[in-house]
Amino acid sequence: MEQVIGNISVLATMPIFNLGLLIDGLMVGSIFALAAYGLALVWGVMNVKNLAQGDFIMIGGYLTWNLDRFGFNPLLGVPLAIVVLWGIGWFLYRTVVSKVITRDLFTSLLATFGIAIVIQQGLNLAFGPDTQSAQADLPTLTFANGLITVATTRIIGFALAILLAVAVILFMKKSRMGQAIRATAQDARAARVLGIDTEKVYSFTFCLNAAICGATGALVALVWNVQPFLGTTYSIRLFVIVTAAGFGNLPGVIASGFGMGIFEQFGGFVLGAEFQQALIVLLLLAVLAVRQLQQLRVRQAVQ
Amino acid sequence: MSRASLHPLTIGSLLLAGVAAPLLFPAYTNQIAVLWLMIVFASTWDILGGQMGYNSLGNIFFFGAGMYTSAVVQIGLFYDVGMYTSGARTTHIVFTNAQYFTGFTLGVIAAGVVACVLALVTSWIVFGLRGPYFAIGTLGVAVAGAELMASWEWVGAAAGISMPVFPGGPEAQKLFFYFLLFGLAFLVLVFLRWLYSTSFGLAINAIRDDEEKAEAMGLYTRRYKRTAWAISAFFLGIAGAIFGNMTGFIEPRDIAFPTTTFNIFMILMVLLGGKGTFWGPVVGAVIFHVIKEVTWTYFLGWQFVALGLLIVIIVVYFQQGIVGWLMEKYPQRFGIRVAPKEKEVRSHAIGFAPNAEGAE
Amino acid sequence: MTDAIIELTNVTKSFGGVVANHNVSLTVRRGGITGLIGPNGSGKTTLFNSIVGYHPIDSGSIRFEGQEISQLRVQEIARLGLLRTFQATRIYGKMSCLQNMQISIPHRKARFFDMFTYERAGVIERAEQLLSFVGLYEKRYLRAGSLSFGQQKLLEFAMALMNEPAVLLLDEPTAGINPTLINGLIDRLQRANSDFGITMLIIEHNMRVIMNMATKIYCLAHGEMLAAGVPAEIQGNQAVVDAYLGAH
Q1: What ipTM is given for this predicted complex?
Q2: Does residue B148 lie within any of the structural domains?
Q3: Which of A96-100, B171-175, C158-162, C213-217 has the lowest mean pLDDT?
Q4: Which residues of C touch A299 (CB under 8 A)?
Q5: By three-state DSSP, how is residue B53 classified?
């Protein structure tokens, strides 16, 4: 407890630390926001709540780490992960997801949870339970007499995340497939009647999400670290973001992503790293509780 | 309305099976004990999932809570818990027989009670949620339990707690815990049979079939939901206390709150056997556990990959479960009567209505 | 006991930008049958939903037996004796008809341990009586979900009667019913009103039905109260005719 108070007082007495945490939070948050967008996309279009989202991210991360291990530039991990995860997404859609879309929601939740377990355990068997990260060997910038450090990898991660997000959003707005996706999200039956092949749309959306996760994973490996069982924490984090913002509210999702990043940095600093996992779960419960109270005012339940 | 108690023949067979098993298969006593535990898991999950329509991904929370409560009581009655769990023990730890059994009895009772209280508290958080939100919310509760215990030094944090040692030889220990788990499973089955025959059973079924309708008819839905949750919690808490002592060592993420193993097994067993039926969970538990025990060793490192695949297969292809499928095929055997298909006539049909639908 | 068992005063409800009900006032006389008509989209079901507590209202007052109920939740209002049936008939599909009836007993005075009682014999007798009343006695052991649409509507009606309500709000009770059976349904509704003393507020599109049954009719159009009066007055009201036929 004293440690917590001590940490808070550091923040209070040295405002420059706050700036450092804020910057870190924004950069990390950009990555969260990207992956949360993918989750919200699949949720909105197919009503599938992908509990394996965090594990897709981990696959992307491990791909990047392996690139680094074998002497390649880990930044190549981003395009590699996009391609590989797109393929994995396609495979999973054909074998599992397409069969559970029409069923009740719990079924799709459980099916994706099953996929998550397979991925986690598979990664564990293949690469062992240690935490890994990819080194991009880029310099660290320092400001304010060394009190704020900003790794260039983080800046690159931030820039790439923004770039990818803009690319995806433009795609959704301008391309035919993007429009088809949005139409299907609004009313699948109407879309079918108008000639849109909703099966293709669903498949594409799922693959797109997987690819987004792959790219995110590559960034995570560069900026942070990966571990086979870290996927669940990411999944929960992303659920918190999407639930807090409301999955139809894309700008809100992005803003919440940043908010999450900042919250985690401050929380981690004040409470210590061991509490990080607990903090994220408690945040989930808090968000759900707030949702319930909101719904209570209109006398509904959180459906 | 279903019978209030199990048929005497069933009771007899259960008792016979329970008592005979360790005598016939002494080498497998522990595995059969875990089978009874699985039956408890499946039957308690089905109260909420199958009978009431609330698919919980967090029932394991009460299992772990009961486990930790019992440990704290068993140790705390005689020694300082913080000192016991820390690396530096200052006094020599010894439990006399009397201390062990008193601690254990009180621990088990406390486990049940604390689990109930936690159920009432968490019901405020989770029962305003429906469907997938409820599932995620309950999963959050379970993971929160694991993470909070893993960060709390007083209960050993991530390192866990080694439980007081059972006073007696290994044979006695095996049989002791075997009969406790069997007794619990038997109690759960008898209790649930009675419970489903009362209006409680009707009410939770109504909530499952159409909760908004039940509310619109004035049913005290929140009361029923909380009570169902508390009943599951009670039995799961006791199960946790017993199991914790049986394994001799408890740890937050893999033993007390195993969110990706026992927590998911309970759902799979019920899906496999048949959701919302009385014997479905039991059938599912038996089949699942037997298959798992037989094949586990052959998978070497790949058990959990196989588990994940199994989840996907069961969820996608075995929706109804075995008993559910039987009920569909032979409804008369189960006392369900379905109206024969009549020729439906839409009200907008101009002209005759040859087949009068409805009454008279 | 006042004559008005339900009193709505200036009830307004909007969803986002759409005003579904605007300053709607009406009274339901105790013991009578009151009709609520209006073209599609005029806000009838929204008004119903407001009365039974399905959503809160923006402004106005809803009184039941003199008590303000606009802040209460669905279950609480139902327990006060105000029940509604649904346009898309809702029953408990996986349970038998008899079980549907058994769970529909009034829960007003239910205490905690009442949850665990067996079914009292009186309950089953009354359930069977009411099933006879609607003509479903022979089908009482059948799974409710397997009944035809019309039969399910009758079951829903019987369940409502089982709950011993003071007022029943019926949302299009004859919708989707075979024309030759409508007379039977009307007969039962009227008997429920006269024999069991249940006050009724009925949304109806079938003019023949509602003009014959109701003693007072309210007509909504575009979310506002257009006309109110006895059936003869409403039938002669040009504004009502125009509303239905779409004249502006």
Answers
A1: 0.89
A2: yes
A3: A96-100
A4: 53-56, 73-74
A5: coil
